[in-house]
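Weekly modeling sync, notes
Attendees: AB, CL, MP (scribe)

Item 1: holo prediction request
CL wants a bound-state model with NAP before deciding which constructs to order. AB pointed out that an apo prediction alone won't tell us much about the pocket. Agreed to run with the ligand included and paste results into these notes for async review.

Input as submitted:
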Amino acid sequence: MKTYVITGGTSGIGEALVNYFSKDNIVFCGYRNEKKLPDELSENIIPFYVDYAKPDTIQGAVEFITSKTDKIDTLINVAGCVVAGAIENIPVSELRRQFDVNVFGAVELSQGLLDNLTNGKIINISSMASYGLFPFISPYCASKRALDILFNSFMMENKRGIKVVSVKPGVIATPLWSKSIKENSQTIENSKDYKNESNYLKQNALENEVKGLSVNKVVQIVSKIDKMSNPKPSYCVGFDAKLVSVVSKLPQYLLNKIIKFKVNKLR
Ligand SMILES: NC(=O)c1ccc[n+]([C@@H]2O[C@H](COP(=O)([O-])OP(=O)(O)OC[C@H]3O[C@@H](n4cnc5c(N)ncnc54)[C@H](OP(=O)(O)O)[C@@H]3O)[C@@H](O)[C@H]2O)c1
């Protein structure tokens, strides 16, 4: 039996990973809302509370996990959210929340677990958004890019033999998208000058939840990476993510022309 720590284990990709790995392993499953844990938990699942929007909960999570195990084979940082809207209308407090949840939370939890992770793996669920091509969800893009840069540096720096892998899914059918509409409703409401763009954002989010790939695609890739002794630093999941990774290599001025053309079509 191996030991896993998986954050964001109460929904979507994280829940699917918890269900998969807990069949044969011990899984510490991160939750922020106790009500979202199943009534009957497998005995292999040990829930722990952490809310990255409340950074003072992270130390408690670290203490809880390290009091129960000396060794973690794989930490999978999944918890995340999407802050969206036109930059000129997004309160800076929301930008901070985006980075607290998607970046600083994952960094602080990982830092706290490093002694237990010696020679293990950290697998981060990043996103194709890390390539930075999507206006109106740029806080999300920036957070995923920051996550990738910080953890890639960590991999090159660390003397503990910890390998880090960034998994970059394209669109996956999960509740992330409807949550994002709800969580960003105030910014969208305040974006009177960007009505068409906001409507597009909402419609796109609802479509994503239906047209996205199954969470099982992510589970398959993560389980393969977990078994590899020398994984690559980054894996795209889905055709859209692979396409974005290629297109992102174009010069910035050309990318901007293409993106601006698409934005103008909404106006
Ligand atoms: N769906 C996609 O198209 C897609 C594509 C690329 C990457 N991703 C990434 O995949 C990861 C999982 O997302 P998902 O699609 O599975 O969405 P999801 O179903 O909304 O799951 C997100 C998970 O993160 C938890 N979470 C949210 N805010 C948190 C906070 N402040 N503190 C602690 N946990 C928090 C959620 O808890 P609750 O259950 O309480 O809400 C949930 O368990 C995210 O990092 C996301 O960026 C998703």
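Recorded for review: The domain at 3-265 is CATH 3.40.50.720 (Rossmann fold).
Action items: CL to compare against the apo run; MP to circulate these notes.
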